[in-house]
Amino acid sequence: MTTPPDIEYFYSAHSAYAYLGAWELERIAAKHNVRVHHRPFDFHPVVNAAGSQPFKERSAAHVDYFFGRELIRWAEWRDLPILTYRPTYHDNPLILPNCAIIAAGDAAGAFSKAVLQAHWRDDADIADPAVLRALATDVGLSGDALLAAPQTPDVQAQHDANTIEAAERGIFGSPTYFFGGDMFYGQDSLMMVDRALERPFAT
Predict the structure, then answer these.
(1) Phi, psi (degrees; rounded to nearest 5) at 185
(2) Of 40-44, 47-51, 120-124, 185-189, where does mean pLDDT reach its minimum?
(3) Rounded CA gap, 91 and 94, in Å?
């Protein structure tokens, strides 16, 4: 029997919609017995390469809808608590939390959910090593070991590779999922990911 391909999961550690889709993604992967390959990437270079409009240049109507009303509705739909608009530390650097997720290895799913939840539910500073260390401990990882790993060349090289590949594959936002080479943008497309795992879409 052929092993199905992984779901490739490209996202950034501060992504609201990655947070809102994380538990549903896990459910779909378990349903189909497939692995989720976590690919955290450096958000700004990727969206800039795709020509996406910078957040500060978007209209008030766009921001109010997608990062206001839509967040509230999807949080209710997914039964997840969420802050509205932008958490206090939303603009802090993401390389440390992104690399910590990569370093978590097989525990990346549990740890990334904890990071996203801390950012969007608890208004925590996910760029703070102390916060990440506590989150790692909460999911059964060694906080000290996990915080040392992002400084290693292998983890940094993987983060760079994820970022380069995201740009090369035309990703323009977070989260983005691939299955069998087919790209699905946004957690609202997870129902299509679910369908693709049963029966791929026509090309």
Answers:
(1) -100, 135
(2) 47-51
(3) 8
Kindly state the helix (H) or strand (E) to which residue 49 belongs, with its residue range.
helix 43-49
How many other β-carbons are positioned within 10 Å of the β-carbon of residue 22? 25
How far apart are alpha carbons 201 and 172 in whole angstroms?
21
Decide if 104 is inside a domain. Answer: yes
Reference 10, options 147, 189, 140; nearest CA is: 189
Q: Is 144 left (phi over 0), alpha (psi -120 to 50) or beta?
A: alpha
Residue 63 lies in a domain: yes
Domain that holds residue 128: 7-198
Tokens standing for 190? Answer: 């997870």
Residue that is written with structure tokens 């290693």 in the block: 152
Token pair 């323009």: residue: 172
- What pLDDT score was predicted for residue 3? 63
- Tell me the pLDDT of the chain averaged across its residues: 92
The total of other beta-carbon atoms located within 10 Å of residue 142's CB is 12
- Written as six digits, the tokens of 203 are 């090309």
- 147-160 pLDDT tens trace: 998 889 999 999 99
Q: Can you give the CATH number for the domain in which 155 is found?
A: 3.40.30.10
pLDDT digits over 112-170, tens only? 999 999 999 999 999 999 999 999 999 999 999 999 988 899 999 999 999 999 999 99
Please give the DSSP secondary-structure letter assigned to residue 202: P
CA separation for the pair 108, 150 (Å, rounded): 13
